[in-house]
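A common beginner's mistake is to predict each chain separately and then try to dock the pieces by hand. The better habit, illustrated here, is to supply every component at once so that their relative placement is modeled jointly.
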Amino acid sequence: MKEVLVIGAGIAGIQASLDMADAGFTVHLVEKEATVGGHMAQTDKVFPTLDCSSCILTPKMVSVGQHPNIRLYTLSEVGKIEGEAGNFTIEVIRHPRYVDESKCTGCGACAEACVMKGRIKNAFDMGIGKRGAVYIPFPQAVPLKYTIDPETCLTLSRGKCKKGPPCKLACAAEAINFEDTEKTVTLRVGAIVIATGYDPFDPKLKPEYGYGKYPEVLTALEVERLCSASGPTLGEIIVNGKKPTKVFFIHCVGSRDHTVDNLYCSRVCCMFTAKQAHLVKDKVPDAKVTVTYIDIRAFGKGYEEFYNRVQSEGIIYRRGVISEVFKKGDKLFVRGEDTLLGETYEEVADMVVLAAGLVQRKEGLEIIRKLGVQTGEDRFFTGPSPLDPVETGLPGIFLAGCCVGPKDIPDTVVQASGAASRAMSVLAAATSGGNG
Amino acid sequence: MRIGVYVCHCGTNIAATVDVAAVRDYAKTLPDVVHARDYQYMCSDPGQEMVREDIIEYHLDRVVIAACSPRMHEGTFRKVMEKGGINAYFFEEANIREQCSWVHSDREVATGKAKELVAAAVSRVHLQEALQEKEASVIPAALVIGGGIAGMTAAKDLAESGFRVTLVERKPALGGHVAKWTTTFPHMMEAQEFLTPLREKVTAHPLIDVMTHADLVDLQGFVGNYEARVRINPVFVDGDACTRCGKCVEACPVNLPDEETWFLTQRKAVVLPPPPLYPDTAVIDAEHCRHFTEDACHACADACPEQAIRFDNAVAEKTVTAGAVIVATGYELFDPVRKPELNYDKIPTVITGPQLERLLDKNGPTNGELVLDGRRPEKITFIHCVGSRDETVGNLYCSRVCCMFTAKQARVVRERYPDTRIRVCYMDMRTFCRGCEEFYNDVQHMGIYYTRGMVSEVFLRNGHPVVRFEDTFLGEVMEEETDWVVLAVGMEPPEGSDEIQNLLKLSRSADGFFLEAHPKLRPVDTDTDGIFLAGCCQGPRDIADTVSSAHAAASRAAIPLFAGKVAIDPIVAEVDTEVCAGCALCEEVCVYGALKLDERLKKMTVNEAVCKGCGACSATCPSSAIKLKNFKNNQLLAQIDALCVKGGGA
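With all components supplied together, the output reads:
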């Protein structure tokens, strides 16, 4: 058996797939979104090197799309898993794309023609950017094939769009197919790598920060999209219609916090905040940028050095996170305690960034739990030994990336290769055992 | 000739500083350029596809892409050339990001420079030659250097994938640092519970050949085909005859500080390393044994009932072949003597965290009793970040584990001796590993005082150590008398890193640890193909992260072993035998050992698989007889001429 299943095509699933495919195994990579790339594709630059995330990720995405040993199933879910290590039977449910992947050239004529164009919040841009009912999440999507969102497409939701659907008329390749249906594919694989990633913490669970109420209060992922050159503002920091002058970052939103039942540290927020503080200061040099924190956890290679650099750029670090964001008149204020000075303060702010932590995915994990993969008190997956995080304890099934707990990109890539190593041992044993 | 030129925006990385449309229009005016375009991300799927289609549609036979550093995407774009049907080396990348947009702010100047760089690349691409990649076969075996948990985990993975593994460990026993820890954090699992099964799997696996008390002395070859020489240092005891009865140890007159207890106790010059040992025998430490150092003492030989002592044991050397090499040489603990203000070497009750670990171990020198010089401490002060995050000792980095091992030790002491008063002085609590924040929360509720602020000095007053520290919450400097001070010492690159670096031609990062090929794309690879990093030799980390990285190194090493073949870069040196006089000056400058003199013909020869294409030979050759393919004088001069003479027309 030389075939393997990877669930999730973020950076963890991508790396695990590439390692195994390069070694000569056939990889079935299943992704629920329309494109590979996961959360890393949404980030602008990465700490501590300030490389642009696209520059690092895009080639790996392209490799996944083009690799002769990788079968990519986007808009797909795993429906059923049966069997045992060396011989699993998998059912993959392929949701309809309503665009024929073999015909679509990615030209974008359909999206131009769509009557809903620019009217639907694009989830990839955290809702800041707008798209139509037929769309690609971002220009570097892999595969570069358009998708019709059945909930907002007038033809699919109401049965009628103008006199004939403009997208269909616009498509020279005749790729639009409103009759597309759900299909099921059955696979046989020797091993499984689970790389389902994370959800960002929903800051509405911390109502004292006013997220969703005040437009000046943003999450870190929203700021990534604002910083991104290919994002909805083309890289300009525009908040509530103007450039901010007084910016506050709040650490540990949804992390280290028993009030939301997340006791754990999310491992990445200290550093992505340092990076974002640097980027905002770089793009809006006159802005006063303040970071409020509990402990600075700059523990990776070159991280402490980056934190020192950011401090030297005139960014103010105040110990003690802001406790409340509120409006007085037409002005937005933050209230906090500086625990080093031992005093409370209230200051005007026109941009507040919440370093929202990482939580286990809320949806789509039932099939994995049904397999018997355990979860910890933090709700992330876990194996029998906390000292060997890639193991599930179930033969032939391995874990990689943030579904085993929050971690940064280097640690995720490392763990993904690690899961690949364990899976390849199982595949090699199954092959030499005559099951191949 | 029909040249295509492509100018990348790289989002705004380039386009914000360089007028990409102007560069594109300028490129169209250059000789033989028949087509020029700009695009948001050239490296993306549509960007690549655009070039491939254009090669066919416009019959391009040369391509220039003005984008980022060739280090990033040269390989990506060469593949596009092939897909378009032209030779992968009829391509030149002009670096208008790292060498232009990222280092300039004036748009006009940057645009001018980008034009010059493009003109230079176009000029050079005219002269590029078609090269073909070659393939080499792969020895399906691996060499792992270091027998701690990283090396053992990597070796076990590769053996379980069916590959022969040689595991080389410098010490007489496998296990590394973890063997000296008692409990692991945050689940309070005994270290031995984790270590013992791993060690048993490694020593029992038929495909793993363990060589302890051994050093790597030479490594030659290239990915897929390495040949190593391993020196097995003699233990001076016949392993078959030795029964580990310990009579030799009793007889030995030498006493010296014992590394096993971090120097809390003494040992002899002949020792019985803790089992399981491989091979299972007493070991004579020749560096300190008086038979070798002074007077040909033979007390141990006289005492041995089995006549197992062999002073005439000689060094053995073995040759090992492997397709891939994993470096897992670990770390060394920071020596707190380098922080004289802490008086570690002057006050006996100032100890390190690892020393406390030995005192807490039921199998340790005090059988787990918290006692030094017969006295039990009533008060203990822990100090974080000793040797980490500290400019004064040259270590800017965080050691990642000290916050947690300190929290764990504070908890163990408090549980066993509930009356002990404990204070922990810290800068930032970095309890980020899984389950660790929760652990820290629990520890704080056990009546342990956490004080934010660093310690400036430890000194003796009335026979007790006094700790002077700042409480940054109160904004006050305090002095507190205590009984024991425990220093949370950080990690440093181990002794012997220089030798390994030279043998394997590795790079080091500013922190002194081995440097990965790319922090995100290739975090366990090195710049030398086929050599990978596992565990703390790349930087400090805890056990879980070490195990992950060891699995990862095994995966990366397994790729060529499974694939059975590797591609060889064709940009290598070539010798013009008509001109070469056989002076062999180039052989001296080649750090890779790729050049050899053919003694009969008196001409140099190139081992293309070993050559890395660095060009040192071609710069050295007095008669220009040795050249680097596609970096020949005419090709480089064409590029330079375009920059100097034409000024790029900007």
